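Cont'd.
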Amino acid sequence: MQADKRLIVALDVNDMNKVCEIVEALGEWVAFYKVGMELYYSVGVTVINYLKSMGKEVFLDLKLHDIPNTVAHAAGILTGLGVSMLTLHTGGGPAMMRAAAMAVAEKAAELGIPRPKLIGVTVLTSINENEWTALGHKTPVADQVVHLAKLAQGAGMDGVVASPREAALIRRACGDNLLVVTPGIRPVGANQDDQNRIATPAAALAAGATHLVIGRPITAAPNIAEAARKVIREMAESGLKF
Ligand code: C5P
């Protein structure tokens, strides 16, 4: 058994000691890590350079959302860090997404490095139907998620972030050429924490997920390497290879 590149472990911590502890404990079992706002705003590019020096891939989840010119410049700069995936909010609109896609492609070509995949965030899963209505929307959340996923695909995004439940709808609507990155994963028997719409690794893959983002079930486990191995085994046993 070896690292499964569809598994992305979320480094939801805010200091480098903790990062090193997790990455060293997981060793060769995990090849891909998610760095979010908390960690990036705490330690900056240090964590990206560290992960790359360890031979790891980075999913930089900063959820960019601004005017096209600003997001394009920011995405270009982040491309220069050598990350494999970047997120932005699809709500920034098609022009913003297209500008980001172009900037990322240009920067990667200029530096002669692989182009990071651009992943769109549709509707945050923390938004429930009440909040959705309060924001003035008339269509159901699920319809809007699918609509935004299609818009993102048309504007050059490589994939979207989605709950396991949304993954199936998106996969049906957008076909096979879209990455679907899915958080809210809980292996059989794991603590649910504050996640509501959860799925096992195998169920998320069956729903059409291409990547699983997993935090606490691995990083808060008493034996984190064993927890990761269990997930990798479950992914392998599902027999699903997108
Ligand atoms: O610890 P846990 O496995 O719940 O962590 C999941 C990761 O995915 C966290 O970094 C969390 O912020 C992120 N995430 C999520 N739900 C979303 C989007 C992102 O849990 N809808």
